[in-house]
């Protein structure tokens, strides 16, 4: 078995997590490739990196035969990894050293059990829809994919923007707001949820359209099937707006129309057999934390 590791430069508190992960990989003699951006950090901070050299695959290019890619960090690190592998069909498993962790949902205490499950095949693969965005009337701009959401929002802190939204070129609405989120079911528990959007089961085939601080109180979040294409035309006082795909943001001219649709290729996530979405949201969001329960 051969796995890859993608992560960030963690704080001092997370060095034990790094060592626990490497010890588990060494125990099973799993060949391990570390993304070159983070290799120097791991070499410096692993308790005994020379001990781990026997399982290391030193290569500046990601091997084609990886069985999975493990991310070490929070959900932000997990999302970065998806951009790094460019939708190559390598399953991802996230170890959470961050905060809430809906995507990176393996706790440090569960690392040995998770590696055992990987080795023994005691897991399932979940395919998650990814957003693809294009800018009409502009050539040569390559935008990354987004697993969670695409957001258009104003550049400054004063004026709202006007967003003309269309579904398959049929007019939907004009949104006077700070911005608009188009989320996948996976991203329904991220930015969209924080501004009042619905939580949607990740196996749903939908887009969630959620306004940010809409000036019209009758405008509500909308869920539509993901076979549609969404078009957004933006008007802004400074003639520019921000376009964000997960954690990456771009300043875009208002003359450019944003088109959003489902990407042809999904992302594969590794989930342990004892994990389920409803338990995750109940635990992470602390539903039912009440003395009466």
Describe the structure.
This protein has 293 residues and is α+β, with helices and mostly antiparallel strands. The chain has two domains: 2-129 and 266-284, Rossmann fold (3-Layer(aba) Sandwich), CATH 3.40.50; 131-262, Tumour Suppressor Smad4 (Sandwich), CATH 2.60.200.30. It is built from seven helices and 17 strands. It has a six-stranded antiparallel beta sheet with strand order 12-11-10-7-14-15, with no helix packed on it. Helix 4 (75-85) links the parallel strand 3 (68-73) and strand 4. Helix 1 (15-27) runs parallel beside helix 5 (111-120). It is globular and about 60 Å long. The mean pLDDT is 88.
Write the layout of secondary structure elements.
Elements (H helix, E strand, L loop, with lengths): L1 E6 L7 H13 L3 E4 L4 H7 L3 H4 L15 E6 L1 H11 L6 E5 L14 H10 L2 E6 L2 E6 L12 E5 L7 E7 L2 E8 L1 E5 L7 H4 L11 E7 L9 E4 L4 E6 L4 E6 L2 E6 L3 E6 L4 E6 L4 H8 L9
Parallel strand pairs: 1-2, 1-3, 3-4
Antiparallel strand pairs: 5-17, 6-16, 7-10, 7-14, 8-9, 8-13, 10-11, 11-12, 13-16, 14-15
Helix pairs in contact: 1-5
Describe, in short, the structure shown:
The chain is an alpha+beta fold. It is built from seven helices and 17 strands.
CATH topology of the largest domain: Rossmann fold
Radius of gyration: 21 Å
* SSE order, one letter for each helix or strand: EHEHHEHEHEEEEEEHEEEEEEEH
Q: What spatial form do the alpha-carbon principal axes imply?
A: globular
What fraction, in percent, of the residue positions are helical? 10-25%
Discrete helix count: 7
CATH homologous superfamily of the largest domain - what is it? Probable inorganic polyphosphate/atp-NAD kinase, domain 1
CATH architecture tag of the largest domain: 3-Layer(aba) Sandwich
Name the CATH class of the largest domain: Alpha Beta
* SSE class: alpha+beta
Mean pLDDT: 88
Report on the biggest sheet. 6 strands, antiparallel
Query: Uncertain runs with pLDDT below 50, 5 residues or more?
Result: none
Question: Could you give the distance between the termini?
Answer: 44 Å
Arrangement of strands in the largest sheet: 12-11-10-7-14-15
Strand segment count: 17
Strand content: 25-35%
Number of domains: 2
């Amino acid at each position: 078995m051969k796995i890859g590791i993608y992560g960030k430069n963690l704080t001092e508190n997370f060095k034990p997590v790094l060592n626990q992960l490497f010890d588990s990989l060494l125990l099973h003699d799993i060949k391990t490739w570390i993304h070159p951006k983070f290799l120097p950090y791991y070499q410096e901070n692993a308790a005994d990196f020379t001990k781990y050299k026997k399982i290391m695959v030193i290569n500046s290019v990601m091997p084609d035969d990886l069985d999975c890619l493990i991310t070490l960090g929070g959900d932000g690190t997990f999302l970065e990894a998806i951009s790094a592998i460019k939708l190559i069909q390598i399953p991802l498993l996230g170890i959470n050293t961050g905060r809430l962790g809906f995507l990176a949902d393996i706790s440090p205490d569960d690392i040995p059990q998770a590696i055992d499950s990987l080795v023994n095949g005691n897991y399932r693969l979940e395919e998650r829809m990814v957003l693809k965005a294009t800018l009409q009337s502009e050539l040569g701009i390559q935008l990354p994919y987004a697993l969670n959401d695409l957001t258009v929002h104003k550049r400054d802190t004063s004026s709202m923007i006007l967003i003309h939204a269309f579904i398959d070129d049929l007019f939907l609405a004009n949104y006077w707001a700070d911005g608009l989120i188009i989320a996948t079911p996976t991203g329904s528990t991220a930015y969209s949820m924080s501004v009042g959007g619905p939580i949607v089961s990740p196996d749903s085939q939908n887009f969630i359209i959620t306004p940010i601080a809409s000036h019209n109180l009758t405008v509500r979040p909308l869920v539509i099937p993901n076979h549609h294409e969404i078009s957004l035309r933006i008007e802004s006082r400074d003639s520019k707006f921000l376009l964000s795909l997960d954690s990456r943001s771009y300043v875009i001219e208002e003359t450019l129309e944003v088109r959003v649709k489902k990407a042809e290729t999904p992302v594969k996530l590794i989930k342990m057999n004892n994990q389920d979405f409803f338990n995750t949201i109940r635990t992470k969001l602390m539903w039912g934390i009440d003395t009466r329960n």
